[in-house]
Specification:
By secondary structure, the chain is mainly alpha-helical. It has two domains: 3-348, no CATH class; 354-442, no CATH class. It is 64% helix and 6% strand. It is built from 20 helices and four strands. The protein has helices at 7-24, 32-39, 46-52, 62-74, 78-102, 108-117, 119-125, 131-150, 154-168, 176-188, 192-226, 239-243, 248-265, 270-294, 307-317, 326-348, 354-360, 375-379, 390-395, 409-421; strands at residues 367-370, 398-403, 424-431, 436-442. A four-stranded mixed beta sheet has the order 1-2-4-3, covered by helices on one side.
């Protein structure tokens, strides 16, 4: 266990992990959500970025501003816009190690490794989106919070306020972590001096966030109202156990057993056990409640903050001295192996082919996009692509039909019928993978 407590081992792991993530950046093409976010940043000025962000439901500026400044400083490339997520994930792993050390685990590095190889962590470590950054501010705020509880000072409270504010400006659901902190320090720890400092820090961070909330609230409501309103049903909650750990329901069951073992038999005090339980539970409970209230769709990535305490609890299971050590040791090892297996499967799975499809459309005289708004996904890579309107259809000899995934078949059929009425018939399937491309010629 000495190696797993060594700082030298931590630095070696972080270096190898960062190098692995950097090598994986070009493996996956840009996903739809990345393209949507980067469309508002890539060619905009600062004012344009800040005007674009509220158009996304719950949109806050810090993640977009990081991409904006990276592009301004180094120019646009997939590597440049994804690099911040890699760095934030590596910093989060370091924070998990510190938290596991503070929790007196015999193998704090194991907790960091469990967090690092979680399929959810890996995916958002390699996407130009704000979730890795939000997880980082959340984990670092917990490090500072625990230090504040041990020795309350104004300086620590100021750092805690700054980290909570950074989390709010990156992903508003990160607020559920300081909520867990405050509940624990007031109701469980009953440390009123630390509670006063921490509470003041959270209030200060919230006040700093209010101007943005008042600026963006109307646009958020409009974004939700103009789209599909989602209702979180009981069956939707299955996304949490199925996707959070990235290992399906079996992995979720093993994770639950490991957490029960750690909370039941590890040598933490009752206060410490309640800290990690609250830290894990608050995002898992409040994210679905918030999504149900706002009519937003439930996604596992919104609960990425819970992976930090869950990783620590799984690693804590290994320290339990019972049952001949077989179960406590095997559970973390089995979960570690399962997560690495899922990571390899994900890395080998083809990504979304928007860029490849856009390149294939370059030679088309014009293109009909289904749905029409999906044109932005293609022109992000090939700005010169032309849309087939009523005028071009009367003169064009060959047109392309770009069919974006996740649409109803009736939508595709309507687009094909429209081309048939204009005198075209299908002659080839230029691309059969999503997004699909069909070629039509006038007959």
């Amino acid at each position: 266990m000495g190696f797993l407590r060594s700082r030298r081992a931590l630095y070696l792991f972080l270096g190898l992990y960062a190098a692995t993530l950097i090598l994986l950046i070009p493996v996956k093409s840009l996903w739809a959500d990345e393209i949507i976010d980067l469309n508002g940043v890539r060619n905009a000025d600062l004012r344009g970025v800040l005007a674009f962000v509220p158009g996304n439901a719950g949109g806050v500026p810090l993640g977009y501003l990081v991409d904006f400044w990276m592009i301004r400083l180094f120019g646009y490339s997939v590597f440049i816009v994804r690099l911040p997520s890699v760095l934030f994930t590596v910093w989060t792993c370091a924070a998990v190690y510190i938290l596991a050390w503070q929790a007196n685990l015999r193998a704090p590095l194991l907790a960091a490794v469990l967090y690092a190889v979680s399929p959810l962590t890996m995916r958002y470590a390699l996407e130009a989106r704000p979730y890795a950054q939000a997880a980082c501010w959340s984990a670092l705020s917990t490090v500072v919070f625990l230090s504040l509880v041990r020795n309350p000072t104004l300086g620590k409270a100021a750092r805690y306020a700054a980290l909570v504010a950074l989390g709010l400006f990156t992903q508003p659901y990160s607020s559920f972590v300081p909520a867990a902190h405050l509940i624990w320090v007031v109701l469980v720890k009953r440390n009123m001096r630390a509670a006063g400092f921490a509470g003041a820090a959270v209030v200060l961070a919230s006040l700093a966030f209010l101007p943005w909330y008042f600026k963006a609230h109307g646009a958020w409501q409009g974004a939700i109202s103009s789209g599909v309103r989602f209702f979180v049903a009981a069956k939707d909650l299955l996304v949490i156990p199925h996707e959070l750990m990235g290992t399906g329901f079996v992995g979720a069951a093993l994770t639950a057993i490991a957490i029960v073992v750690a909370l039941g038999w590890f040598s933490w005090s009752k206060e410490e056990k309640l800290l990690w339980a609250l830290y894990a539970a608050m995002p898992l409970l409040l994210v679905p409640a918030a999504d149900a209230y706002f009519g937003y769709f439930l996604a596992a990535r919104q609960m990425i903050f819970a992976l930090v305490p869950i990783s620590i609890l799984i690693a804590g299971c290994m320290d339990v001295r019972r049952w001949g050590l077989v179960l406590p040791v095997m559970l973390p090892m089995v979960l570690l192996g399962a997560m690495i297996y899922e990571d390899v499967r994900w890395a080998r799975r083809p990504g979304e082919g928007w860029q490849a499809a856009a390149v294939q459309l370059r030679d088309a005289g014009c293109t009909t996009f289904v749905p029409a708004g999906a044109r932005t996904m293609y022109v992000f890579f090939e700005p010169q692509l032309r849309v087939c309107d009523e005028n071009t259809l009367t003169t064009a000899g060959t047109v392309a039909l770009a069919l974006s995934p996740d649409q109803y078949e009736s939508v595709y059929a309507e687009a094909r019928q429209r081309l048939g009425r204009a005198g075209f018939r299908k002659v080839a399937d230029l691309r059969t993978a999503d997004p699909r491309i069909e070629v039509y010629r006038r007959y």
